[in-house]
């Protein structure tokens, strides 16, 4: 009988830091990219899953390790180990590892520490997860995001929201509105990926004086001396107001051709103009444009005023241009009566 040769196959195993076999059921969830201000801290939202056979190994003592550059021992640096008192970076494991929560914070993250970061858990088992987070730094805070309000009508409440990432929970950024048009409410919010952001909502009653105003949300922090801002321009609609009239040339001479002009403050702009002429009890419409060309004669004597309209309403000028020869004798020429105008209709 011939003896059978025993064939032994040797498998080359890469130098992996985990002491258990690879399994697709080991998984970790954390953002792909995180960014913080140079020298500040950074929050790393983190959670993981293990195979059913390792659930019983989720017990104390438990420690977490943040490994820089590679998941393998040979090509990496352990920058933080929760079981050690001395580390490359000071840090904390905020989550409960036995509950599969590896949320952590690393302090004093400088530009030299930019790299890939892998998480390793050590308890009843030891495993370094394959997925990683890329950590980067920047010199200044990121620009805030300002949500511009929709176009508002005068008298309505305007709310403007501003938000910015808050990568370091120990030194959240400060949001300031310029100009300070009203009251603001600041909140800290958690996003879907577990990162945090600071939000400020400014509320104020809109007025015509706010139309065209540049409103800025300014972000500052104790981690940097440089403040950043985002600016929007407000748009407020209102009825025509401050309606006035003028005559060019201003000197009155019988037989002279003059131009009467109607001015107003309105947003949106005035769409329609009407010029009215009054003489005694008689009144009639004499023009429908911003300017009225007129020849000064005895037949055109009387009072002239204008009415303007935009899509919100209309207003009359109570600044009356009077072309009465007797008035010219008594007053020495043209007289303009300056009185505030009022909005007649506002839908």
Automatic annotation (TrEMBL):
Transmembrane regions listed in the UniProt entry: 326-346
InterPro entries for this protein: Ig-like_dom, Ig-like_dom_sf, Ig-like_fold, Ig_sub, Immunoglobulin_dom
Keyword field: Immunoglobulin domain, Membrane, Transmembrane, Transmembrane helix
Pfam families, A to Z: ig
SMART domains tied to this protein: IG (SM00409)
Annotated signal peptide: none
Domain Ig-like: start-end pairs: 144-233, 240-322
Name this protein carries in UniProt: Ig-like domain-containing protein
Organism: Denticeps clupeoides (denticle herring)
